[in-house]
Amino acid sequence: MRNISWKDHLLSKRKILDTGCWEWTGHTRNGYGKVLYKYREVSVNRLAAHLWLGLDLNNSNELACHKKECDNKRCFNPDHLYVGDNWSNMRDKIKEL
User: Fold this and answer.
1) 62: domain range?
2) What is the CATH number of the domain that holds 47?
3) Which residues make beta-bridge pairs with 40?
4) Is residue 35 part of a domain?
5) Can you tell me the mean pLDDT for 37-53?
6) How far apart are CA 66 and CA 82, in angstroms?
7) In 65-97, which positions are buried (b, 16+ CB within 10 angstroms) versus exposed (e)?
8) What is the DSSP string of 7-76?
C-alpha cells in the first residue's frame, strides 16, 4: 500500500519550468516519464491525464496528448494535456509542421 496518493507522488517528482511544464524528474524511457502503476509500466503523462482529466487507462483508443504549445515529452502538467485519440494526436502533429 502506498503511503501517499499517486497525485502527490507525481507532484513530488516534478520540476516546474518557466514554460509552465511539470517536468518529470524520475525514470524515463524514450524521453517519456515512466512509473509502475497497478503492476504495469505507464507513461507519467498518461497517468496524469487519468488522475486529473479522467482518461481511461484501460481504453487503448484514449491517448494523453500534449497540446501543440507543449512539445516536452517529460511534461505531465494537466493544463498542457488533453484526452484525445490517434486522429487528434496526428492532427496536432501536422499543425506543428
Assistant:
1) 6-96
2) 3.90.75
3) 37
4) yes
5) 97
6) 6
7) bbeeebebbbbbbeebbbbbeeeeeeebeeeee
8) HHHHHHTEEE-TTS-EEE-S-EETTEEEEEETTEEEEHHHHHHHHHH---TT-TT-EEEEPTT---TTB-
Nearest to 93 by CA among 71, 61, 63, 62: 71
Counted domains in the chain = 1
Q: What is the dihedral of CA 58, 61, 62, 63, to 10 degrees?
A: 110
> Is residue 1 assigned to a domain?
no
Each residue's pLDDT tens digit, 69-92: 898 999 999 999 999 988 877 776
Record the cell numbers describing residue 21, joined without a space. Answer: 511544464
State how far the Cα of 18 lies from the Cα of 43, in Å rounded to an integer.
23
Is residue 49 within 8 Å of residue 7, measured between CB atoms?
no
Q: What is the pLDDT of residue 41?
A: 96
